[in-house]
Specification:
Layout: H1 3-10, E1 26-36, E2 42-53, E3 58-62, H2 69-77, E4 84-89, E5 92-93, E6 101-104, H3 116-121, H4 130-143, H5 159-172, E7 177-181, H6 189-205, E8 209-213, H7 217-223, E9 226-231, E10 240-246, H8 258-270
Parallel strand pairs: 3-8, 3-9, 6-7, 7-8
Antiparallel strand pairs: 1-2, 1-4, 4-5, 9-10
Helix pairs in contact: 4-5
Adenosine-5'-triphosphate binds next to helix 2.
Length: 293
């Protein structure tokens, strides 16, 4: 067990700020989640999800819209709870609002009246000494290329810069597990590519475990060690792991490689998307269709 985990469980002070980010393995064992349905019954969204993520691994989750990707991420973060099964981090069950995790969303969710620097500082573990906290925030702003904009407020910077500040805020916690829910989904195509490269730089500097939900097959191929396809077998309601794909090659990968293009095709097939479009009246695209309940 890492120092930070021990601290979280025992209520002891967190690991010193500025330590290399720890990384912990994540295990999902038979995770199911049902929600109340309008007819008074329940509706299975996830069922029997089994997944092991190694410490420091980047795993991308792909699946049709509404299949339960965000729900799975929330369960790992302790923001939601499974109806069956369990989620563990470093062999210990996830707790409510688990302090071992940090979550990044599609929108930066920065406080508009605070400077970027003070927004990033919000992510520091409770009880961080002021001077150590300042130094850590400065290092993170440097890492995400915002050192010169530390004093700017969110409305004074671009959407991509705000999202970088949001990533720095998530990292400020020194998370063992970084959970990213479509973190670049709202950005323009070019900024999105830059952010993907930045995430790889950040991961090289702070090799934490990353679980990334994305709708973008190419993004998953560029960033992940493994891609997990969530979906339903059609026989029973609810989604589980349909396929796990190891992405070949070292990061950063050649976005134009034939090997990745072939894998992209296979993933699109797995998602039920016709890559040539016309045959089934669907546009060939990397955008993923809605989950059929
Ligand atoms: N708190 C809740 N109460 C009831 N239903 C919920 C709740 N949270 C999620 N759901 C339902 O669970 C299903 C899965 O939602 P979730 O957001 O996890 O899917 P997703 O795969 O992330 O979707 P998308 O790709 O569109 O973001 C949806 O049908 C959603 O309406």
């Amino acid at each position: 067990m890492t120092t930070a985990t021990t601290a979280a469980i025992a209520g002891a002070p967190p690991a010193a700020v500025g330590d290399a980010a720890p990384a912990a393995p994540v295990a999902l064992r038979g995770v199911g989640r049902a929600f109340a349905a309008p007819d008074g019954g329940t509706r299975d969204v996830l069922r029997g999800v089994d997944l092991d993520i190694a410490a420091g691994e980047i795993v991308a989750i792909l699946g049709p819209s509404g299949c339960g990707k965000s729900t799975l991420l929330r369960i790992v973060a302790g923001l939601d709870h499974p109806t069956s099964g369990e989620a563990d981090i470093d062999g210990e069950p996830v707790q409510s609002y688990d302090v071992r995790c940090a979550v990044g969303f599609q929108e930066p969710r920065l406080l508009p009246w605070r400077s970027l620097e003070r927004n990033v500082a919000l992510g520091l573990p409770r009880g961080t000494a002021r001077r150590a906290g300042r130094a850590h925030v400065a290092r993170l702003l440097e890492l995400v290329g915002l050192a010169e904009f530390a004093g700017h407020r969110p409305h004074e910077v671009s959407g991509g810069m705000a999202q970088r500040a949001s990533l720095a805020r998530a990292l400020a916690r020194n998370p063992e597990v970084l959970l990213l829910d479509e973190p670049f989904g709202a950005l323009d195509a070019l900024t999105r590519l830059r952010m993907q490269d930045l995430l790889l730089d950040v991961h090289a500097a702070e090799p934490t475990t990353v679980l990334l939900v994305t709708h973008d097959v190419d993004e998953a191929l560029q960033l992940a060690d493994r891609i997990v396809l969530l979906g339903s077998d059609g026989a029973a309601p609810g989604a589980d792991v349909r396929q796990t794909v190891v992405v070949p090659g070292h990061r950063p990968r050649d976005r134009g490689s034939a090997e990745l293009a072939e894998l992209r095709g296979r993933l699109l097939d797995g998602l039920g998307i016709d890559r040539h479009g016309a045959a089934r009246g669907i546009q060939a695209t990397t955008t993923i269709p809605h989950f059929p309940y």
